[in-house]
Amino acid sequence: MSRMLRTLLAAASVLAIAACSGKPEATASAGTAAPPTAAAASATDPGDFGPPRGEPIHAVLTSPPNVPPPIHRNYPAKVIVELEVIEKEMPISEGVSYTYWTFGGTVPGSFIRVRQGDTVEFHLKNSPDSKMPHNIDLHGVTGPGGGAASSFTAPGHESQFTFKALNQGVYVYHCATAPVGMHIANGMYGLILVEPPEGMPKVDHEYYVMQGDFYTVGKYREKGHQGFDMDKAIDEKPTYVLFNGHEGSLTGDNALTAKVGQTVRLFVGNGGPNLVSSFHVIGEIFDTVRQEGGTVEQHNVQTTLIPSGGAAMVEFRTQVPGSYVLVDHSIFRAFNKGALGILKVDGPEDKAIYSGKEVDSVYLGDRAEPNLHAVSTAAKANAAGTLSKADQIGAGKQLFTGTCSVCHQANGQGLPGVFPPLAKSDYLAKQTREHLIGIPLHGLHGKVTVNGTEYDSVMPPMTQLTDDEVANILTYVLNSWDNPGGQITKDEVAKVRAQPAAAPAAEH
Ligand SMILES: [Cu+2]
């Protein structure tokens, strides 16, 4: 026997002993004449408060970002949960579709709320339209596989198992059918809250937010239907990192809301499958965090780490109005992979706390609103072969706002001495089409003279843009601000991209 194997076995037997001396004791007390009362339970007790009482209760399940109402029961009950697995195509970003596998039709799956000590009768259904078998592993379950072993369900079938919610906390659930990573990557995760017997402190708003990483064959925001990319998933190189499964699910009209002076509790989960989340709300400090979804309360927290397959409860009181931005503070994920949401707080200013300038535009660019409709219109026209110059200009304008305007400004005027103007630029007007296309593709550095002023700076390559996005942006630029007009096609961009990256030298 190898030393490694021996060590592993020794560790396993220690675990087994620990399990024997732990849970069964609690279960034994269930049979005694006087089961421990709810009030007597401490946060660390497994909450077996005796057999379920009263009529069975059907659990209220909610779709994100909603959370089922608080439980006002003071006795353990039998709670019936019915959850259906549905495989369905939904937009992952504007103009981009993805085939999700879901618990209850949404990503993350339906939020489940029970009370510590409840006996949960779990029904997992797999829609007849499904192509795959699925199961469920609830981290709030004590038992092999967290339920996975008893819930393997073929399309058109239903499984049932029962567990007692012994430990309070907020727990991730997920599918654990092989290949497990793929099922999770396709959106098969959600949260179950096991409330303490005395309930949770009352707040004005409770919301459900869950991060996940997604792996598509095409690039970020590449239009059309995108399949799952196993290689990217194994390499842990996500195309999208998202809150609640879709870009825009917590922005624009979908933003979370609160009023000044209200208390907000976020149940924040991380489905992974790969990344850990540095969860942060720009402009807020978390008054209370129950880190890892457990019972320890931490206060005055800026960013809380949420492991893959973990969750946290985050609370704060809003003080001043504005848009607060939920991000994974591994910040490229927020601005280049979609991990961004908004909490919109309305109400009176309090200049003593904050002088009152909005942060939206600084942080958000085009992302405050799901306003990429022109982009998807152009993508559809492109697919149908009916793309017009006007479609391209419309889409290009939106994309320019998100990509180029931080430097060249929305009006194309640039910033004096720092970023050259694109408006009525004589430099731009005299470029060949290839050189012009090369600027966003390869970037630009060295001396350039624009309208009589010399710039000697660096524009980074915009490698995240697809061929049609570059074509649309340049067509928009050419047809704006007294520039010479014209049209750049996707094929032309593809041709330039395929050439060896001869950086367009500044002297052109
Ligand atoms: Cu599954």
Please write out the topology:
Blueprint: H1 3-30, E1 57-58, E2 78-93, E3 96-103, E4 112-115, E5 119-126, E6 137-138, E7 158-164, E8 169-174, H2 180-185, E9 189-195, E10 205-214, E11 224-225, H3 230-234, E12 240-243, E13 256-259, E14 263-272, E15 277-282, E16 286-290, E17 297-301, E18 303-306, E19 310-317, E20 322-328, H4 332-336, E21 340-346, H5 360-364, H6 373-384, H7 389-403, H8 405-408, H9 426-429, H10 433-442, E22 444-450, E23 453-459, H11 467-478, H12 490-498
Parallel strand pairs: 1-2, 2-5, 3-11, 4-9, 10-14, 13-21
Antiparallel strand pairs: 2-3, 5-7, 6-8, 8-9, 10-12, 14-19, 15-18, 15-20, 16-17, 16-19, 20-21, 22-23
Helix pairs in contact: 6-7, 7-11, 10-12, 11-12
